[in-house]
Design brief:
With about 625 residues, this protein is of the alpha/beta class. Helices cover about 55% and strands about 5% of the residues.
């Protein structure tokens, strides 16, 4: 083909090839022809041309890259590894070589090395969507969804890829990062507003930012256009539930579902609606129907049903389902049987592996005294890096290790020595007394903070406040506005901020609403970096008012004598608090203030005002 070109055209082609492939003359044209052959799937010619250049210019990246891509396509694993490894050594920062070698390593079952190469390829500017999909899938299987989302988000933004943004959103959902998921779903919809999955993602984004009216309207319109979009039925039910239109939500169960998974999700929402209404038998039936309908997403439904039974005090009935909360891959590493009485009696060393957030970890580690651990056994908690300092001096005899510093293989840890801390729930039926007061805050730090707040207050009441809990729907129902909490305080009170995250705008709004109340954010305490300091801050305060978040559990574990916890009614009430009564059934030292009806904090806030009278 190049023979028909003029001399000038050949020179221009050679010059362009030299710039593109880093090699002059005919070799550059040969590489160009090899890439063209590869694009039209003429593998034989592409291979021959690339081989020719590999012999004449062995230090050039491109022939090895082409040969590696061909070997990958043919699943010639060893050859692909050799060619692409050569390419990476020639050009260590080339995104295509890194991605290709990573794929070869996957075929050789070296997954950990593969994902490291994929991350380097992404950082180097890769546009390989097949590599991104493979990377996301592997990271999900390795329980590293948050890391994968962080790595892929810049790539998705750079490529403006709807598919990749949607993938990032799903990764965020794995770790309950609803804000991140909503942002990615919105970006996917902006890139391709016509795609059905991206339109559904747009509805989800609205749900995550609590635009329930928008979810109801948009999902209804889309279902009229295409009734086959069954996933929208569950989303619409969730919106109607949050709008208080529960009868309308339950009526949607009569839709002719063709997909068992979407009917299962709708049944789970129906169960929550029945809990909101106090219809526990109906909720139980809905959960059981959802469980038996399909095994898809079973771990989520099983955990929800298990904790539902726990909330009713039926610990024995809930345990088999709660035990299913971990995916099979993780259960293969830490079986439920490791926590059985006979297994505990046989071990002189145990490692309790943390689950969920800090509040849940504190609540669950409190179960350790119920477990028949062998006399003299060494028990260590493995979790958040802030925990070792925060657990110092605890009365459970529990040492702590940071997750990032824990290498079971290097420490010679036998698989039987690992236990999920939540698996201690199997001993809940034997609980006869509250579990709180096992933590010890640093006495010197407590005294220092207490003196500082007393000096600031000058005899006025001092109260710690926490009012917000995450971006999830559950967190939304647990939260109250800071202005509403501050409105319950007596004149001139000093309110100490115990809320994590950026609270500046909320504090400023509260100050405008109640200029007589000082809301103080102590910059010497950062619970996100220093949990032990946060525990000292809690014990330095006379009174605490908190929604159900880490603050409440920390106060319970510390045995704080005057902590008031705002507990939502309905499905958002955590199982630790049971379903009724004001005494705290878990820690024993908290005072619970329950909603009479879901989403109605007015009576609770009135009760808080009465505390100061």
């Amino acid at each position: 083909m190049t023979q028909s070109l003029s001399r000038k055209q050949r020179r221009a082609l050679q010059s362009e090839a030299a710039r593109a492939y880093g090699v002059d003359g005919a070799a550059g044209q040969t590489l160009h022809a090899a890439y063209q052959a590869l694009a039209r799937q003429d593998i034989r010619q592409a291979s021959q041309l690339a081989h020719t250049v590999s012999q004449s210019h062995p230090a050039n990246l491109h022939p090895w890259l082409i040969l590696g891509m061909i070997a990958l396509d043919r699943h010639e694993v060893e050859a692909a590894h050799a060619f692409l490894d050569r390419a990476c050594k020639i050009a260590p920062g080339d995104a295509r070589a890194l991605a290709g070698l990573g794929k070869a390593l996957v075929l050789q079952a070296d997954v950990f090395a593969a994902v490291e190469l994929f991350e380097r390829a992404i950082e180097a500017g890769s546009d390989d969507l097949s590599m991104a999909r493979l990377y996301a899938d592997l990271m999900r299987r390795m329980e590293r969804s948050a890391q994968a989302a962080a790595a892929l988000a810049p790539m998705a933004a750079r490529l403006q890829s709807a598919a990749l943004q949607h993938m990032v959103a799903e990764l965020c959902l794995d770790t309950e990062d609803y804000a991140g998921a909503g942002k990615a779903f919105e970006a996917a919809y902006a890139a391709d507003p016509g795609g059905a999955e991206y339109r559904i993602g747009h509805v989800k984004a609205r749900l995550f930012r609590h635009d329930f009216a928008g979810v109801e309207t948009e999902s209804a319109e889309m279902l009229v256009q295409d009734p086959a979009l069954e996933e929208l039925i569950g989303l619409r039910m969730a919106a109607l539930r949050n709008l208080g239109r529960r009868d309308e939500a339950l009526a949607l169960l009569d839709a002719p579902f063709a997909t068992p998974l979407y009917y299962k999700r709708a049944l789970s929402t129906a169960a929550n609606i029945h809990i909101d209404r106090g219809e526990m038998r109906a909720a139980d039936l809905a959960f059981r129907n959802a469980l038996h309908l399909t095994d898809e997403e079973r771990i989520w439904t099983a955990k929800a049903y298990g904790t539902f039974r726990f909330s009713l005090g039926d610990f024995a009935g809930g345990l088999p389902y709660y035990a299913e909360r971990q995916p099979p891959a993780l259960r293969g590493r830490i079986p439920y049987e490791n926590s059985a009485p006979e297994a505990l009696a046989a071990r002189q060393r145990l490692f309790l592996v943390g689950e969920q957030g800090i509040g849940d970890q504190l609540a669950l580690m409190a179960l350790l005294p119920l477990a028949p651990v062998a006399a003299g056994a060494q028990v260590r908690f493995v979790g958040d890096g802030r925990m070792p300092a925060a657990l110092a001096g605890n009365t459970l005899g529990l040492a702590a290790l940071a997750q990032e510093d824990f290498d079971p293989a290097a420490a010679g840890v036998a698989p039987q020595e690992l236990i999920y801390v939540g698996d201690l729930a199997r001993y809940l039926p034997e609980r006869t007394a509250p579990l709180g007061g096992f933590l010890r805050a640093d006495a010197d730090r407590v005294a220092e903070l207490r003196a500082r707040y007393a000096e600031m207050a000058q005899g006025r009441p001092v109260v710690g406040l926490a009012w917000r809990s995450g971006d999830s729907l559950t967190g939304h129902h647990r939260s109250v506005a800071l202005t509403d909490l501050v409105a319950t305080l007596p004149e001139g009170a000093l309110a100490v901020n115990l809320q994590y995250g950026d609270c500046g705008a909320e504090i400023a709004e509260a100050a405008r609403a109640r200029p007589d109340v000082g809301v103080f954010a102590d910059d010497t305490v950062d619970q996100m970096a220093d949990l032990a300091g946060f525990f000292a801050q809690i014990m330095a305060l006379e009174r605490i008012v908190s929604i159900d978040n880490t603050t409440a559990h920390a106060a319970g574990a510390l045995g704080h004598p005057d902590t008031h916890v705002l507990v939502p009614a309905g499905a958002e009430c955590m199982w630790y608090w049971g379903r009724e009564g004001t005494p705290d059934p878990w820690y024993g030292n908290l005072k619970l203030h329950r909603q009479d009806a879901p989403q109605d904090w007015a009576p609770v806030l009135a009760g808080l005002r009465a505390l100061w009278q």
